[in-house]
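Service request form, structural biology core

Requester: graduate student, group of Dr. S.
Request type: structure prediction, single chain
Budget code: on file
Notes: please return the result as structure tokens.

Sequence provided:
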Amino acid sequence: ELVESGGGLARPGESLRLACAASGFNFDRYPVAWFRQAPGKEREGVSCITWHDLTTYYADSVKGRFTTSRDNNRNKVYLQLTDLKPEDTAVYYCAAPAFKNTCSLVDSAFEMWGRGTQVTVAS
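Core staff response, request fulfilled:
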């Protein structure tokens, strides 16, 4: 199971930190990705972090502003959102694959999903 937390309302330029808590599977052997979906838009891959060497990948739209990290001892992955913009408003989901152990920003590569946490950026 994956459970997201940390969403909320932020003003442009502010920061938020999202967390994804994992349970029920060998979390430390799988990559974890963050996706987001804004109203009326397709789900977008935001970031991914590998399980073994902690390599990170980011969508161009968030590169330099968002940072993902993980604590395998606590079964958690984090997404630090900085310099938030109104276009970052979306429901943010964390996801993990059930079979593959390579990072991706494509949602079809992931079988386990959290329920999401809402991030709203508005002045």
